[in-house]
Amino acid sequence: MATENIEISDAGEQETAPTATAEAAPETETLSATATAAPRVRAYPVAPGVRLNVRSGPGTNYRIVRVLPEGATVPIYCQRPGETVTGPYGTSHIWDCIANSQYVSDAYVRTGSDGYVAPRCS
Asked: pTM of the prediction?
């Protein structure tokens, strides 16, 4: 089974203002109006000791667009179902959109929930 490799510090959850994204991928996806209009987007830590692959879509078959360093935190603008992945925080089919067409498996992000914590991507 394929897994994403990520890491994060013990800093815990943080809140962050939405930021513009610079990279566009062949697959275009628009964040939902609810997700982009929110005044604050919550950021969550990635699993400790892991460098996490950021993919262009919700599965390990999508291309890697960048790799997050150990100790990273990620904003979750919206979430969508995709490939099931097992990671430090269990097995999940939820993928977190951290920027336009940039996804990480929720199994590597400490959200404190096994379910959705952000709006579904449109």
From this structure: 0.70
